[in-house]
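User: Show me sequence and structure for the first protein, then do the same for the second.

Assistant: Starting with the first protein.
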Amino acid sequence: MSAVPRHPDPGGLPGPARGRDDHTAALPGPAPGLPGPEVLARVFLSRVLEPGDVTGGRWVRELGAVDTARRLREGTPPLPGVSDRRWAGLCARAARADPERDLAAAREAGVRFVCPGGGEWPAQLDDLADARPTGLWVRGRPSLRMWALRSVSLVGARACTEYGAHMAGTLAAGLAERGWVVVSGGAYGVDGAAHRGTLAGGGATVAVLACGVDRPYPRGHTGLITRIAQQGLVIGELPPGDHPTPNRFIVRNRVIAALTRGTVVVEAALRSGSLVTARAAQRLGRHTMGVPGPATSARSAGVHELLRGGATLVTDAAEVVELVGDIGELAPDRRGPVLPRDLLEPEARQILAALPARGAPSAADIARDARTTPDDAVARLYELRALGYVERHGDGWKLTRQAMISGRADPDAC
């Protein structure tokens, strides 16, 4: 049974019989139909332009995807903003691009292509402006747009500690229980722990890859990414069969940041790629959160710098939801344990506080230290004796063992 987010209408994909516009292509299933020129142009551009190419994004915004693709195919005249060398490289890639072949490969792998403006396109990705993806390759049945409406990204170190893996899994499971979709990058470490924690909690998760969604990376996560595709969504900007590069991992992070309402960084060193995601979220006006770690841990140093720079400190899913959720989704108040002496009336607590740890002072001495009258002190002392806090020794009074133990239960309260 597929995991879905616990909120209304998880948004299963419409089948061909229910209709669709030209902004969705390569839907799994029979008779997918012919894609329109806009889809073909954007599939072509996903093969030619690198993800996050703002110059190419400006071309698409100013000329349109169809005309930009045509100019790249023809090769002349060059489009503005690039050197002759780079233009020649783009034209060489354009000569090898075959959008129909890419769509056929995607259909064979159960992958669809989603374009900006289509019914499944998450509008928040438009905040990336000219760095917006030309389109997204999506593997999995649910609607990306619907799932992204209530989503949080959870990222962190690949070489995380046991603490980092535990916190990522616990946070993810807690978010899943509250009906939130957890988005991460499918990598080792915190990413993998976040995906596994979500799936273990019966929730919904999305993996954003820096390669073609038909070839899971890293290889060691093939089983996990396959499971995510079966129960959730695997998405990416690169066409089928394309491979990851270091730069593609970095630019992929902007999609994770833009797609979600907020980003939580669990563990990160000072040069961690997950900080790129967090800073992108800050630039986009998304909530940015960090989970603190030991002050001596190099793997938490980046998170601590993020917190010093204005990110919000969170320690559990309730605190995350309080920040990114709707009005009224508040985390519970954090309080220490309630001690029996906390339930005493203020006058009785004042008398109890006046008794020393050793010795048996008289009621008059206790009254003086408590700044009250002897008669009031005697009345309160008998009340405290009935409750087991004090006992009488001749003309004096002393604390019982129960009072001594309860007084030590919270040594920081004084």
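Switching to the second protein now.
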Amino acid sequence: MRKRIILLVISSLFIGASYAQDSFSGKTEFNHWSIDAGIGLTKPYRNVARGYSTATPDFLAGELGARYMFNEFFGLKAGFVYNNFQAEKSTLDFTTKQYEFDLQGVIGIGRLLRFETWTQTLNLLAHGGFGVGLLDFDLLDDNDHFATALAGLTGQIKLSPRVALNIDGTMGFHVHQNRTWDGTMPRNNEPFVFNGTIGFSYYLGKKAQHADWVVRENEYLALMDERIADLEAQIKKSREEDARKVQEADDQLGRRIDDLDGQVAMLANAGDDDIVGRLINEGYVNIFFDFNSSKIDKGAADAINLLRNYMMKNANVAVNLIGYADEKGTEEYNKKLSTKRAEAVAELLVKSGIDKSRLHSEGKGEDTSVDESSPNARQLARRVTFSIR
């Protein structure tokens, strides 16, 4: 549900502008364009080689862009960002320059929250979008290209009808960055960078006011109420859909358990001399584990004793122990965890008197046969099952 809400907000940044433009066209005269510039400090995080460290904060960060506001609520801006990263004096020396072009949606939070009811000089903008750029390393001949997702807030102080003072904080989350900030090593973490700048907006146009500061009476209230109601309806629908999926998964788990109980009872009543062997081979004997654990708890005693007694009575029987994990974690981690679970059961059987040569342990990793949307269903995946060979 959280992902869907985020997508709704991001969508409103880019498609809400044109919708609002149609709704407000011709009602109030104001300027749309501005030139925004700022200078300040920068700090990259989580991605440097051993022995290197970036200054906190680092000078210089600079940005220059053009912004077009469709109305007082929504707009778009395109910009250029320059960052200069340097080493702490106590660490190995390096300098890296970042050049970036970006396109972002803009929301006039001050107008949405009706700041004009208590101030005529303060405003707040939110912005978010995407960009591309390169890193120029002084320690490396090659440049490193990257893409970035951006989000930030800009506080504004109106100095005149043409000029506003801006204080901006922006976070950029880099993807496809291949090297550390110093350039000496392959990337070891997901990097991100924070820029804090102070600068100005210069408003272009012949009208008396810009969209950042335009004040309407009551013409937009009905539309905003409608938008809020629509967003609330979509969130409610998303929650109901999530609840339905969880309920379906739980119902599926209940049916699976009932079916399991029924088949075990059927086998027990069949009078077969090798009922236990059939139960083992058909997957009805399992050892279940807690999340991210290979520790065998007391609840597994019945299944362990069943398998041990069967192997004691059938000295020629060997058994495969097959471990599984749920979908949480990487493929490599789940492979190791499922192997540890199988080996833990084998070790317990050896301690109970079963010869180690009769046991073969292996981990299969993630069990994809269960419904990932239900925590209860995932419990079935965290197990060791058996087969006779």
